[in-house]
User: Fold this.
Amino acid sequence: MKIAILGGTSQIAKDLTVSFSKNDRPQLYLFGRNLASLQSFLNSNNITKNCTLLAYDEINNHKYDVIINFVGIGDPARLKEMGSDIFKITEEYDNLALKYIKNNTKTKYIFLSSGSVYGGNYNEPVSENMDARIKINSLDSSDWYSIAKLYAEARHRSLNNFFIADLRVFNYFSHTQDITSKFLITEIVRAIKEKSVLRTSPDNIIRDFITPFDFHKIIQIIIDTEKLNAAYDCYTKAPISKFDLLLEIEKKFDFKYLVDDSYRNLNASGAKLNYYSNSRVLEEMDYFPKNSSLSGIIEEIELALKI
Assistant:
């Protein structure tokens, strides 16, 4: 099995590379703009076999069974800074993959999408029967990311003769994540490590955090499927509310938090109260997650504290 990974320096791509190296050991072709950084990552994880590093203009130098496109922005601060450039970046690398599969029709394409494609205010969790909600007459910068992903998905559905899977990740956490990034979970880990008090808003948001084991499981299920052209929502056994999570972490770790009415989190793609999906379409492909949000987060925090 030969797998090309676009955006190889992204955190989720790195974690998947490690998962592949431990389990399936396919031949990986890692693409990125900073190949020195990719090589350093491979060295630090003792991945010495079955990996080739390539610049994007070398994509046609090899034949792949699968292309996985991770190019994008995960950090809310970087996403806010990028603004409307997210359209150009998303389309550029999506075009790169689409051009390849049009010339190599047996190649499978997996695109990392986002739960943001649904739009709206997420007062309720989403499901497979929910329509996307875009404020077409009052768009602002918090909509750019959602629209970029939605546009990519629409293009993919129009190419229904090709194998294309869009995986909508709502929330992701790994012990290798950069704890300086502006996510609730990374702020929690930073507070534990620094023995500081976490300040948080009174909003009791609900999230579903997939972690590396179950994400790798979904990827492998998609790869093993013979034919499809569809989008799938990622999920765990169960989501968790912010305050249930904080209480559990307080029990298990040396951790304190303070509810501050004046504190506001950075929401570059818009505020989301119930940012998770009730869709279980992946069950039809025999995906049954190992972890809940809580068990996955606790497992990854314990690993993070050992680093």
About this structure: The chain has one domain: 2-175+209-236+274-291.
